[in-house]
Amino acid sequence: MIRRYRQTKIVATLGPASGAPDKMRSLFEAGVDVFRLNFSHGTHEAHAKNVKTARKLEQEFDRPVALVADLQGPKLRIGKFTNDSIALKEGQSFRFDLNAALGDETRVQLPHPEVIKVMEVGADILLDDGKVRAQITAKQADALETVIKSGDALSNHKGFNIPGVVLPVPALTDKDKKDLEAALDMNVDWVAQSFVQRPEDVAEAKSLIKGRAALMAKIEKPSALESIDSILEIVDGIMLARGDLGVEIPPENVPAEQKRIVRKVRHAGKPIIVATQMLESMVTNARPTRAEASDVATAVYDGADAVMLSAETAVGDYPAEAVSIMNRICERTEQDSHYRRIMDSDHPETQDEASDAITVAATHVAEDIKAAAIVNYTTSGSTALRTARQRPIVPILCLTQNITTARRLMLSYGVRSQMITEVNSFAETVEAASKMIKEKGYAASKDKIVLTAGVPFGISGTTNVLRIADVD
């Protein structure tokens, strides 16, 4: 049996360092709640094998595991150089054009005519994650003339970013559509969509998914920040991809945007992952920097549902150690009295419906009577999501007969999903919950729990009953 003592969830990316069954098991035991399949790398066969391993862990430990398929999205990259790389000097002229010939110290191919078309003189092109900045000085039908403002080297196929410009590039490439279909056939629980710029981007993905998985928008473009309300209405969750976002907006703006987006998504009652470079130094070091530990803690203080490891677990030298230290940081932060004051000072407003009022009341009652847990019986998962948005101090035990619901909710703050069968009334649910919560170690005999459910029993969207029960 595995018992998590924190409310914030941990997402780990699978890769060469962690894809073997024994490696996945060690990550799971160290604290992983959600595995991320990065479709920018690896084959469909490799991802399918990892899915099977995750489902075996799920059965062995009697604990649902969520799987996120992260689509690559369009990759904007320059061409190749004659000698694979060049040196640059600040102030030199440099040309980006459509010519497929190998580049040199004066020019390189930019194989995206749609990008050249929308660019304007004075705009910046950022290359190699912002290490090189070129400012456009002149524009032609097939080329952009620039001056190098910063950076001293450039090599083959480096990616580039165009800050502040909505690019006429589809968010879903042909590769993404093939990957999406493969991921859905693997029965992943979440799909993370890259390169989201507009609500129309996620609407297209939603129509292709057709309810077979929950959809998460990766927020990594300034235009997505501007359209966050419309995007949030369509998707089921958000991933704040701070790496790419930090290239496209000033780095000093990222912390404030993180707090704004986390709060907005939490209030919408949807899960949010804070991602990218959280423990980056642990790719090669056994311990994180103090700044990285503070970064993870900040995401927890902000109220994120989950924090994510990328290269640290995919290709790093210390994948299990990275999960373990992230687990400890989350636990310690949640024990801080300042953390609880932050969560309690910003409860979302009650929506104008009975089920939301019940879940809000359950949170307050659980705190007042020092209950061991809040138990939600739910079919769709909406009750557990409403409870999670209140960020209660106690665990949320979600009882459901729907395995899809159980898995998706493992991404949400504080939720411990458990499959339950053969219950036909609220009374049977109370009895089953009392037994299960004791077996799982969340409560002891004579502890109190707060339960919510709906009457008529088992009908989605009818949460209207709150009960206090003693654990036998």
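the 2nd protein, sequnce then structure:
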Amino acid sequence: MTEVRIQGPGVLDRDSGKALLENVVECRMDGVDALIIDLSETQSMTSPGGAWLIKIADHLREREKELRFEGQEGPVAEFMELIGPSFAAAPRVDRRHEGVLERIGGAAWKSTVEFRDFYRLVVDAIYWSFIAPFDGRGLRWGLLVDELHEMGVRAVRINFLMNFLLGLIIAMLSAAQLETFGATILVADLMVIAFFRELAAIMTAVVVSARTGAAIAAELATMQVQEEIDALRGMGLNVSQFLVAPKLLALLIVMPCLVAQGIVAGLIGGSVWGIGVMGIDWEPWLRESLNAAQLDDFVQGMLKSVIFAFVIVLIGCHNGLRVSGGSRGVGLMTTRAVVMDIFALITIDMIFALMVYYVL
């Protein structure tokens, strides 16, 4: 083995350590296997001097050369023993490649854990919303009123506008088709049936999920990141009682009202096009609308609104309480909550459609 020996300075400090590194860099290492630094004449060493030795070790490691120290005694030997682990290369960690079955199993396990957490949240929310208040455990009535105002009153304008525009569009498109058959008056029937059964409920649910569902997820996620949720649990308070139950009850009350408002707004939008643009007299339009109105259709829309409210609140709370990763995690979970809301709404609506088509 070919070796090169360099004599260490009497005092190894910031300046002498830097000079020693420059000396090592300038040293020709072609055909040399190891570098030996002789510290027999070194009487003292400072922390910056030790740092320069570590830089020398890194420099030689990059060139696959061995570094050894000899001759150190007294305080220098003790200092070298203290910083000795820093000269060793960090162990190489090989990333283990996961197989297909391992990835499937990991995803299945994560889904199982998430489903278990969601199930527990549903059970707690039902208990603290519908059972505990009648069992003398109380309810945060002040927060319930605040949630009613936030979820209901402040959503009236945007909900009316969205359903009005949707009614205008549906009337416009359907009139273009029915006009070829001379049956434009049937637009009134179509508007009533569509908004009673389907459009008002789904459009209102989308508006609420984008507005209220996202707000719920962001609020709870922020509290989770700032450890306010842990503080509540540390004080012996139930999170579902103080945070989930008021939101669930508020949206269960507000959602049918918003859907009813959406029905009115959609029918007004359709009437604007039918009466104002198509020139249909208001009396036959109103008569046709009343004849098409069925209680079963209205009940179906109201039932959807209740289920939609239940799903929006629980999905928002579930994602908010599972956040991790700071402010970025808050944004990701808020987005995830809205996406899950929309998917759940469409799925539930499809189930209703199948039941109406095949069962009722």
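The mean pLDDT is 87. The longest helix spans residues 186-225.
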